[in-house]
Design brief:
Radius of gyration: 22 Å
Number of strands: 9
Largest sheet: 8 strands, antiparallel, barrel
Number of helices: 3
Oligomer: single chain
Shape: globular
Amino acid sequence: MKNTFLSPLLLLFFFSVSNGQLVDTSISGIQAGLLGVWWHNESKLAHRWAFRTEIGYAAPVYERNLYREEVSGNENYLFPVFQPVFCIEPRWYYNSRKRQGNSNNTFHNSGNYFTAAFQYNPKFLAYSPSGNTNEPLAFDAEEPNGGLFITPTWGMRRNINYRWNFEIGAGLGIDISETQKRTTVKEAGHMGNDFVFNIHLRIGYKYGMKE
């Protein structure tokens, strides 16, 4: 009889503790979108703050094909440049308490967030569909744009089920390094990308043992 009475209380306590957690202690997963794939980990910093580490292969910048623009007279020949992406960022899940008050789940950091991400795009292992070396002034796969960006971003994450989630976000990054300045004769007419658009729609999978 005693155990029958205590069991509902223990379950109620468990769910109240779970609902009271605004940010997970540590979660890891993989995400995929139209222009990339990423691995990430988020570790709790404070009640509504998490520190995110991300490694991926994506297309954060676009390259103009100057040859095709010159021949056609059209300046819309833009091609994605796929390259490694390393990113660290503090995320503020600002509406976690409101979602909790509305009985919406916040597990696995489900909520809206603001962040200022530091994103490094090295030049090695880069690839672009426009990398045709037979076209003068076309993208050169050995000298793509790189750079170190700071990218203020707004985003939101929602859970589909325990393992699967989706995330959308929008931001604009500014190059805080001088690594994109082009000085060769071939590239004299194009000084590189000083900005990077962080607009994404990703499907994610959270791996690891269930809590």
